[in-house]
Write a structure and sequence with these properties.
single chain; 515 residues; five-stranded parallel beta sheet; alpha/beta; 20 helices; two-stranded parallel sheet; disordered C terminus
Length: 515
């Protein structure tokens, strides 16, 4: 099997193929350009200077100075397989390569058994290279533990996914983790120029214009394999046209879509999603649109994006803009009814709305505090006056007795205990003064005073006069023994208190307990 056309694999536990090292064969003359240009020595390796210092684990691994097991973690095209080739070329070691895409527990155990027998008879140590190790199941990874522990084999594993999520902890603790970084533009540019002139590459049969070079560098996004593959395609196109130079037009025809570093099942998925959410939370619509575009171009499921937007609408915008949830759910519905690519417009509109909306996490904090109390065992039985009283015999049990129907009061708010006894004074929801929540913040303390029967602040002289007039007019008594102050009618409905242009309660309103 030849995954990605990068290397051939020996049969696990079987005879090694002819070649410079067990598990790998020399590249053929017609091998892909990235394979032909693979570094032949550690000095040719580009872009991982942080791992190449004298005595560094990577240098020890390649030279065979240390039998430590290593996990190589990095995005595609950063040199993980190249390092495996360099290790395979080291002397006095048997090298066996396998891919987690096709190998199973039986294959792994066969390699381990063979390595153990050879060591007992004075044979060379075995280096086992496993590509895409994150695709091994927990059971398959477990099968490596004992052999890695006693160094029956030296494990060299490669993964593009975060090993803290994809590799079991016991195996991770037995290995040195080396993180490979994506190549920067200068590194990719240098490798393109080398490939154009090197005899292993294009051997100077074509030249590369500056504009075409920049195009290939930009589209590669740090993936040197992508850059060399595009270069080979462009060179083939130029030769077919009978020209010696790869110009911008030829390069654009060879590859017109950038390499988007995004794996729907991998680490980049979580990183991009995190950046997307944090950009909306940070009120940066431009950044949020960029990360949205990254996900859409990479083929992310739009339903996943829509779900994250719906969650964000309540988690980070909440009551500061109650319309945000409606916008988010409408976008999610549009994804279901319309689909891509058109639904991308609906997602973009929702993203801009949420990114530019006032922010409040008061709902998130409130439900979190309430759930913490419940999990801690707080909150007794449902108060008897709130219990269901519609079935026969319920009244005899005292269910519903003493319940006050809010709509019987002109204000539709009455003094009544709704929380269990041990949480009677709990105040989970703490509104902010952001956006629409500002007016709610004015209303909530008044509601709590009425519902919980708390004494209002001492009224001013004018408020007392108005309160007396209200009493004379026969206004409804408030639960704290007073009437609505400030001359506001007791029948004024919730939410109808006058507001100014900023959304706060108008200065003309002095209603002490008016919701």
């Amino acid at each position: 099997m030849e995954p990605d056309g990068l290397f051939s694999l020996a049969q696990p536990g079987g005879a090694a193929p002819a070649g410079p090292a067990d598990g790998f064969t020399s590249p053929a003359a017609d091998a892909p350009l990235p394979v032909r240009m693979r570094p032949a020595s550690l000095d040719e390796l580009v872009g991982q200077e942080h791992l190449l210092a004298p005595g560094a684990p990577l240098r020890q691994l390649v030279t065979g100075a240390s039998p430590m097991s290593v996990i190589l973690w990095g995005p595609p095209g950063t040199g993980k397989t190249t390092i495996a080739h360099l290790v395979a070329g080291a002397t006095n070691r048997k090298f066996v390569a396998m891919s987690a895409l096709s190998a199973g527990v039986k294959d792994v155990r066969a390699v381990i058994d063979t390595a153990r027998r050879e060591r007992r008879h004075g044979g060379p140590p075995t280096v086992l290279f496993i590509d895409e190790v994150h695709r091994f199941s927990k059971t398959q990874q477990d099968s490596l533990l004992a052999a890695v522990e006693d160094r029956t084999v030296t494990l060299l594993a490669a993964t593009t996914e975060n090993p803290y999520f994809s590799v079991i902890s016991p195996l991770l603790s037995r290995c040195v983790l080396l993180t490979l970084q994506a190549l920067d533009d200068d590194d990719v540019r240098g490798l393109l120029r080398r490939a154009v002139t090197d005899e292993r590459g294009l051997g100077g049969t074509v030249t590369l214009s500056a504009e075409a070079e920049e195009h290939l560098v930009r589209l590669a996004s740090g993936d040197v394999r992508k850059a060399l593959t595009a270069l080979e395609a462009a060179a083939g196109s130029a030769v077919a046209q009978g020209v010696k130079e790869i110009d911008l037009a030829t390069a654009e025809k060879a590859v017109d879509v950038a390499a988007v570093r995004y794996d729907r099942d991998g680490d980049a998925h979580y990183d991009v999603t995190s950046a997307f959410i944090k950009s909306m939370r940070g009120s940066d619509p431009d950044a949020a649109l960029h990360w949205l575009a990254r996900m859409l171009v990479a083929g992310e499921d739009p339903r996943f994006i829509a779900r994250r937007i719906v969650i964000f609408a309540s988690e980070d915008v909440g009551m500061a803009d109650p319309q945000a949830l409606l916008v988010a759910t409408a976008a999610a519905q549009a994804v279901q009814n319309v689909g891509l690519p058109e639904a991308g417009l609906n997602l973009a509109q929702a993203v801009v709305h949420l990114a530019t909306a006032p922010k409040s996490n008061s709902v998130t904090t409130a439900i979190g505090a309430a759930m913490a109390d419940v999990r801690a065992g707080r909150g007794g039985a449902v108060p008897s006056h709130l219990r269901d009283a519609h079935y026969p015999g319920a009244r005899g049990l005292g269910h519903g007795r003493g319940y006050r129907y809010p709509h019987d009061d002109p204000r539709a708010v009455v003094t009544q205990q709704y929380l269990p006894d041990d949480l009677a004074d709990a105040e989970y929801y703490q509104p902010t003064d952001h956006g629409a929540e500002r007016s709610i913040g004015e209303r909530v303390p008044r509601l709590r005073r009425i519902v919980r029967g708390r004494a209002a602040s001492p009224p001013s002289a004018s408020a007392s006069s108005a309160d007396g007039a209200d009493r004379a007019a026969g206004g409804a008594a408030g639960p704290d023994g007073g009437r609505f102050a400030g001359g506001v009618s007791p029948a004024t409905p919730l939410g109808s208190v006058p507001t100014d242009e900023a959304g706060s309660l108008a200065d003309s309103t002095d209603g002490e307990d008016q919701p």
